[in-house]
Amino acid sequence: AGDDTVGTAVERLRAAVADPGPGGLRALVTGEAALDADNDGGDVDGPLLLTSMAIVAVLLLLTYRSPVLWLAPLLAAGLAVMVARG
């Protein structure tokens, strides 16, 4: 991941298969390299993420009505995101 040559190769492959073939046959680029190229630079905007987290925290505070319990689901969600991103 993060290798510019892989991203360039994926873009060249996508350009090569962009036009449908005879009979409308379409080809797509798949696999780990294509997924990595799609995920590079596709991070969520920082202010948007912080605003969303603040809204979720307020909703959890209102739901749990506890100064501590609201942290459990928020920390679990954060851990899940970290594990998913590797």
From TrEMBL:
The keyword Transmembrane helix applies. Keywords: Membrane, Transmembrane, Transmembrane helix. InterPro entries: MMPL_dom. Its main location: membrane. It is a multi-pass membrane protein. The chain crosses the membrane at residues 46-63, 68-84. GO terms for cellular component: membrane. Pfam families: MMPL. Residues 7-86 form the Membrane transport protein MMPL domain. It is found in: Membrane. It comes from the Bacteria. The keyword Cell membrane does not apply. This is MMPL family transporter. It comes from Actinomadura bangladeshensis. The lineage of its organism: Bacteria, Bacillati, Actinomycetota, Actinomycetes, Streptosporangiales.
